[in-house]
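A quick aside before the break. I want you to see a complete sequence-to-structure record at least once, exactly as it would be stored in a machine-readable document. Don't worry about memorizing anything.
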Amino acid sequence: MGPASNVAQFGEALQLALRVTTEGAGVLPDWLRQEFTPESTPDEKARWLNEWRMESDEGKVRMERERGWEMSNWLYWVSGENGFWGIENITQGDGASLVLELNVADWPAPVAALEWLAERTGVTVDEVDFC
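That is the input. The structure line, written in tokens, reads:
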């Protein structure tokens, strides 16, 4: 798969994620649904959060990366369900890189969720601009 097709795959997956609120998670491609971490029980989430709170900043980042994204959490941020953000523009940079321009009404914005999707499609997010 070349850079242009990777960027297209990112765009397609993002467009489908924006439809999940009205059409359900079944609209997501199989390859993407397989990338998510299994959903945790409330007890598992509480234990993880307690451990995360005791970590240094670097440790927190490591734990977050190792844990991955549960589908429900990722969809909350990316589907637009939270109403805090929208995509203003996506520009392809050199090769398989993107510049994202987000219209953000409040913080936090779903930057980590978008970067995770980019990583899964072989795309690099070079820059995120806010307007």
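Two observations worth writing down. The longest helix spans residues 3-23. The chain has a mean pLDDT of 83. We'll return to this after the break.
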